[in-house]
Design goal:
The chain is 32% helix and 25% strand. It has helices at residues 79-95, 110-119, 152-165, 192-204, 216-225, 238-246, 261-266, 271-279, 281-294, 315-325, 330-336, 339-344; strands at residues 2-11, 18-26, 29-34, 44-55, 57-62, 98-103, 127-129, 135-137, 147-149, 170-173, 209-215, 229-235, 250-252, 297-298, 309-310, 313-314, 361-364, 380-383, 386-390. β11 (209-215), α5 (216-225) and β12 form a beta-alpha-beta unit. The protein contains 12 helices and 19 strands.
Length: 392
């Protein structure tokens, strides 16, 4: 099927240029971008009425199966329950404009099952780049929903099992975090040998490792071992941020983790968890400001399901607003959820609007380059040439 989106103001997320044009879509890909189009009979036309059209958003730190509050999680949950919850969260993400997610650890590898169902056409959902279960040390951060390993050989085995099951990348948990009461961000839970082992396995399959990590010292260990993507980085100094940039690494800040007190209360989090998150907020923001100053490539990720709401906006958009506060300009903020994210997941067909790219779009009435809050009012979502949401 061929579809034409007419009367678009297309945002080039690389340069920031806006072009008035039409987008011709064949099946799930962009065929051409034309300033003037003829009246081709038999084509489906959608008049965008001068709306600003951007690539579909990519969220690179997503848990589709996570249960809130955390203590209600059941490690032995029926896989069907995990899959149903993943499907619901995927639908919420799509409605919010998130057409692609990178998952970073899911109960029962439900994201892989959901991805297979989407590919087969049985259900709709975002494109999924999966980490499978993810791997942590025994009793470490992520205990209860990850695979657990001890020693380099055991980590190699668990990583290979995730890749064999269909994972696109490897997720490890290097330090403590917010979810466990007695953990600290600086608490190194993996040895250097274990970290290197995961990177070796990932590279042997042409992929990479992303790591839950809280503090500068373990981040530096990850850089030296070859970890590509660092999640959270609650406390980051300039030397470490510079090392991440020089290594070509990425940081996924998940600033909303420490800035969503109301959302946490609505979802029944224990008061100590809320207090621990909020207490880290200032340092977390300053850490990401340091990353911005060092020129590190930032990527949008929420940890909280991206289609959930906080302060009247989808979490994925709140994360973009937090990144604005951290020192990015509006175009750079949009890049975190488009071209930067696409680079991280190794895709040249996502995060851009150009011939040959996937036909994933969002649209707003107002220009998000002037006010990032314009993205709170996304009224049109298309994924792979299929209209997901249309409120013209």
């Amino acid at each position: 099927m061929t579809t034409i989106l007419k009367n678009c103001r297309i945002l080039d997320v690389e340069s920031g240029a806006i072009t008035e044009a039409a987008i011709t879509i064949h099946d799930d890909e962009i065929r051409s971008i034309d300033r003037v189009i003829g009246q081709d009979g038999g084509l489906r036309e959608i008049n965008m009425q001068g709306a600003y059209v951007l690539p579909g958003l990519i969220s690179c730190h997503t848990h589709l199966t996570i249960i809130f509050p955390f203590h209600l999680s059941e490690p032995d949950e029926d896989p069907a329950m995990s899959a149903y919850r993943a499907y619901r969260r995927g639908q919420d993400a799509l409605q919010a404009g998130v057409t692609t997610v990178r998952t970073v650890g899911e109960l029962n590898r439900a994201d892989i099952a959901l991805r297979k169902s989407i590919t087969a056409g049985w259900v709709s959902g975002p494109r999924i780049f999966s980490a499978g279960l993810g791997v942590s040390v025994t009793g470490g951060h992520g205990h209860g929903f990850t695979a657990e390993a001890d020693g380099a050989d055991d980590f190699r085995k668990k990583c290979r099992e995730d890749l064999l099951a269909g994972a696109n990348h490897i997720k490890i948990f290097m330090t403590g975090g917010i979810a466990h009461k007695d953990e600290t961000f600086a608490e190194s839970q993996m040895s250097d040998e274990e970290i290197r082992a995961t990177v070796e396995v990932a590279r042997s399959k042409g992929t990479y490792v992303c790591a839950h990590v809280g503090d500068s010292e373990p981040v530096m260990k990850g850089v030296k071992a070859g970890v590509r993507s660092f999640e959270h980085t609650y406390n980051l100094d300039m030397a470490t941020a510079t090392a991440v940039r020089e290594a070509g690494g990425f940081i996924v800040p998940t600033l909303g983790v420490t800035r969503s007190k109301d959302w946490m209360r609505q979802h029944g989090f224990e008061e100590w968890t809320i207090c621990k998150a909020v207490a880290a907020a200032d340092d977390h923001l300053e850490s990401i400001r340091t990353a911005v100053k060092a020129g590190v490539t930032l990527v949008n990720g929420t940890d909280i399901p991206p289609g959930d709401s906080d302060d009247g906006a989808p979490i994925v958009i709140r994360e973009m607003e937090h990144c604005l506060e951290a020192g990015l300009n509006p175009l750079q903020v949009i890049q975190t959820a488009t071209i930067n994210a696409a680079r991280l997941i190794n895709s040249d067909q996502l995060g851009v609007i150009k011939p040959g790219a996937k036909a994933d779009f969002i649209a707003t009435v107002e220009n998000p380059l002037k006010e990032i809050s314009a993205l709170r009012d996304i009224f049109f979502v298309m994924q792979g040439g299929t209209v997901i949401r249309d409120e013209r």
